[in-house]
Design brief:
The protein has 93 residues and is an alpha/beta fold. It has helices at residues 18-29, 51-56; strands spanning 8-14, 38-44, 64-73, 79-88. The chain is elongated. The relative contact order is 0.21.
């Protein structure tokens, strides 16, 4: 009798750490678990590196959503977060 595996989410906050993010995503992509059985949410807190490039290289292997938080400076010198979301669903192979 086969048992249905639970769906889970993995949230990964990052800020200017492309090597560590790549290692983390490689580990998740290598899990012995159906790739559509979990989602990965990467949140970039406005770093200077090309985090989106790292994440996009895993779109074909993971069900991954990329969220970036950009800081917008106002005329009163307050920083307000502005969020952009990019999502690409993986397909079963």
């Amino acid at each position: 009798m086969s048992q249905k595996l639970p769906f889970f989410s993995s949230k990964i906050p990052t800020f200017d750490r492309p090597v560590q993010l790549t290692n983390c995503l490689q580990s998740l992509a290598g899990l012995d678990y159906p790739h559509l059985g979990f989602e990965v949410i990467v949140v970039d807190d406005g770093g200077e590196t090309l985090t989106e490039t790292v994440v996009s290289s895993f779109y074909d292997r993971l069900n991954v959503t990329f969220i970036t938080i950009m800081r917008i400076q106002t005329r009163h010198n307050f920083l307000h977060p502005r969020t952009q979301r990019y999502q690409k669903k993986a397909y079963a192979k």
